[in-house]
Amino acid sequence: MSLNALSTRLAARTLCSGNANALRAGTRSCRVHPAIHTRTFLGSFWSKASSPAHSAQASPEPASPAPAPRQEHLVHDATNAGQLDGTPSKHVAVSIDGDPRTFDTVFLRDSCACPQCVDPDSKQKLFQTSDIPDSLEGRCRTVIDKEKGWMIEVEWRNDLPGYGPEHRTRHSIDWLRRALNTELELRGGVRHDERVLWNKEIIEKNNKWVDYKDWMENDENFFGALSHLNKYGLLFLKNVPDSEESVVDIAGRIGTLKDTFYGRTWDVRSKPKAENIAYTPVFLGLHMDLLYTSNPPHLQLLHSLRARTPGGESFFSDSFHAAHQLHTSSAFHFRTLCTFPVTYHYHHPTHHYHYTRPTIELYPYPKYSEPTNLAIHRVNWSPPFQGPFEARIGGENQTALGNYRSASHAFEKLVSAEENLYEYRLNEGECVIFDNRRVLHARKAFDATKGERWLKGAYVDDDVFFSKLRVLDEKFTGKWLADGVIRHAVK
């Protein structure tokens, strides 16, 4: 399709609403309607025209397509592509894909990304939403940007203090379309979820091993590894250099390491009078780390530096898979684990951590919609670090604690079932990375008198991991995910 033909087609489909006669004459105008009869959508910032009279005026599908803009109009500052029309108002009607949409001027003004409103270097806003006057009104026209295509340009009346009459706000039609789609999906109650639930058979078939060099030097391979880690919560690296700093390099490829009272990195090795059961040679059951803190780490990394003792095999189990199984077998047990408060603590002379949380956390659903999928956010399971219960602890006619005991027993049977456990003994030069808020880990006992077992560990927070994943996702696929909604990159 030629550039002129494409421009003609866009002109017919993505215009701000205006006078019907002017549109049929080919004028690409944007009219702001002082009074618009609309059907509001759950209190959102936009609405869809429903009045027949308004629809006739606001749906710019001309009998003859508007003439294609001339080549000289396809420049960044093509402000003459459309003419201002209409009286300033608190709403701006824009036709997107032939369908009129009405935007609140507060939303359009608050989203302004011009250099006066957003610092070009830091990308941070230079004003507050609360600064926007109640009397703000706007009117707009359509313009063409050589990089962003069709846009609306809004002229303001009663703008924020400090902004002169020359200030304009521009938004591309693509950006406005994405804003509408994002709100619809956020309110829809269905979350896009790339995570794959697994048992022993599934993870053995789909497990992923990544070479250390590919992880460190190849962005595309690195993106594939992070995507797999996000889907399954488990990933292995091989050929890792025999250095205490290797785990720092591996974690640093994702972002900043999480520093805890254990240190920026820490050693898992047997020692006398250990302050943590992980630093002993005894059996360590399935658990998650640091549930006694307000923000437990998202990722845990363990690099095997020495593996010279008999025993010490690691186990991994997908707690999300077990939670789904529990929901199928007993909705009552599942609800109990979603509501009963469990206390976790780390109480020593120099450190005292304490936090209470339910075993299963679900994503909150939109106020106006019903859930259509089982959206598990996190699972909290760490029996070795559990403290005394502090609520619903029993008594006459109280059954909550008994219900929790039954539900936790059913859940433990699922996570530790042979068909759900993946067993692997880390060899020297290998590193495992797993989602600490999803994948449970355990370790068999080992004989510390017959050799050395030494793992170097590190943590990475959720914000750091998802930031890196979104950067790479946008780079290689042109999209990114947040709050269960896919956002396509828009210039």
TrEMBL record:
One GO MF term: metal ion binding
Gene Ontology biological process terms from the UniProt entry: carnitine biosynthetic process
InterPro entries named among the record's database cross-references: AlphaKG_dependent_hydroxylases, GBBH-like_N_sf, TauD-like_sf, TauD/TfdA-like
Chain residue ranges for the region called Disordered: 52-71
Keywords in alphabetical order: Dioxygenase, Iron, Metal-binding, Oxidoreductase
SUPFAM superfamilies the record matches: Clavaminate synthase-like (SSF51197)
Keyword Oxidoreductase carried by entry: yes
Domain of life: Eukaryota
Domain TauD/TfdA-like: 210-459
Gene Ontology CC terms, in alphabetical order: mitochondrion
Low complexity composition bias: residue spans: 52-61
Cofactor names: Fe(2+)
Family: Belongs to the gamma-BBH/TMLD family.
PANTHER family in alphabetical order: GAMMA-BUTYROBETAINE HYDROXYLASE-RELATED, OXIDOREDUCTASE AIM17-RELATED
Protein name: Clavaminate synthase-like protein
Record organism: Lentithecium fluviatile CBS 122367
